[in-house]
């Protein structure tokens, strides 16, 4: 009996949870997403970034909790609190603990559909607790909300999806604050939002401010009450901030080292596009790949909810002041979608890199929420209201149709379908209704069909990574890394590779690497990597162009190199799931390690690796390496020779090509810096640069940032150059090693009418001199006796005066050093790395990482939590005394 009563009261909530979940599950099964087929949900950032971070989440919780604070899987080392705060604090991520390796895609499937379900449940809870709707209309509006256009467009950004479930709870807390004066619900849920994802939480805070303006008008009593509500609203926001300070304060510090350095400093007071283009987003299926980097905001909701929203302003039961405040909030949100200063405000002073107008979920919430308040259970509107809606809809669709060529993401069939859905919905609202229950069920079906069509039409425009592509690569990577760990000893070492699926492969397989991609990436690392010839960008580095020098310096003790399959039939599939991104003849200078190799990958051991730390000349702390002059090979030589206290110009020499052949290209006498022009614009222009090494030394060719694959194709001895495709600085390509007497031909095929040979120079590394420098630097290694993600202890014997312990740990104020038990101040070397001053002799050096402001933030949150608990305890006792 109790169970029946429970379900009789809660069935709208259950239906609100299960309906969007089952709709999306059905679609994913239709698309054969793992575990139901050969595809996966991985696409764009979900496939290139998040899935690896989810694997790292598993590794941290199950194997290395200290990696919550710092990780050497984040390129050559980096803070992790900021990464966790942005990517990994969702409680849904705990589900990934049950899905290791290639099965992680199944975990992503489950988490994704659950987030759809909880979004519907949260909105239904808001409707129920505020008594705005009941019965069948609860799942009707909650389904329109859970399957909104923003949700569908951003399911690949699943780290943001929790927001859609938490926002209704924050608004419920605001409603309770305005009706009962209780702050705890608002403060509590806002704190949850800030901890779950501070970035989206910031947007929720801005929307809460707008909603408060509407709410105080809606619940207006008098001026005194308004002041009380204002103070309680401010107190609630402050309490939420201090309760989450343990995470927010170290995150703010991390942002100051990374993302905050790219803030826009000049604001243009202008419209970003013609505002009428937003109307196109009321058409179903108006999301595709082209809308990801730039486009209009995604806020599609069912036309049932749109008409209900319009009805809010046509119903007489809402006071004109309430309508006016709602109109102001609507105007601010709409203006934010097209007016640059407001757009920047919502994005915290930065234009988004892809996925514009990320805050459009609040507009979808606003549409559905006002609509739910306006449409009564009778589901019938008056004729004049219907005519008003008809005029607005006709105006909207006419504008879109007349401008189809300007909104290419709108397909004419989709426009016709949308017009049909809107027409059916409007007719449904006009019809008199005898059996209210049946019509409410019809309304639910109408919304479900509408939102399902939008989901299918939008997601069908995207392609996904196959399960085999992800699974095979992950298995090979895990297998090889585990072999290295099993036979490479327990010491610290970094691993490089000549192939890449994503820049976060080190996090996927939990090894110390040199690649990384995240939005909270310290800027000093991309700056350094770009200066030594590695592809880099804002928030990304790919260590694909390592030289003997950089491999040695950065402690790349092992290198994983792909094997070419014997059978040509297997070659295509092999290249598909193990993409080669590095041409590296230098591996011939390393030692093949059979025990660490397998049928797909050969692992090499680098005998010249210097270790994480080593004794070096203290001149390295005074070295100024220019970022704007010179080239990456010259910088590497200067750094390495300064460390070894040897002649800075003894390692490299510039070489000339023996022969240059121009085919359909006008000849030039000077290569570097020249502009090549085709002779016949209708034919292919090619240039072949030939040289024959007279030694077995390593040869490197520098290519300026203009020499990318968009401008030309590149070949070494007729084979396509394997190179990571995007870079913004000059890179160094390894073109030969152990090739004495063999002719090397570097070919360029122009894709355009002209080509600038920017920073195009051939260099020879004197391998004998390099080995001497490496041997000298290896004399005083930092021999680690203990190492974890945030603490390293080891001994070092400094044999000469004027030396330091040079490490390749990125400099950070979070690192603290002790020498022989005494605290010492670290120095910054090459503007990038930690160096510890040492005197001659034997020393024990310990480096410990403590996230800046973590202790302060934890203390603030702890005091706030204890104070809040104590306050409630006092109130509870007072109530008991009054009762007695």
From TrEMBL:
Keyword hit for Secreted: no
Keywords in alphabetical order: Membrane, Transmembrane, Transmembrane helix
InterPro entries: Uncharacterised_YfhO
Keyword Cell wall biogenesis/degradation: no
Pfam families: YfhO (PF09586)
Domain of life: Bacteria
Membrane-spanning residues: 12-30, 81-99, 106-128, 134-152, 159-178, 198-214, 235-256, 297-314, 321-342, 354-371, 383-402, 414-431, 438-457, 853-874
The protein's name in its UniProt record: YfhO family protein
Protein species of origin: Lactiplantibacillus modestisalitolerans
Taxonomic lineage of the native organism: Bacteria, Bacillati, Bacillota, Bacilli, Lactobacillales
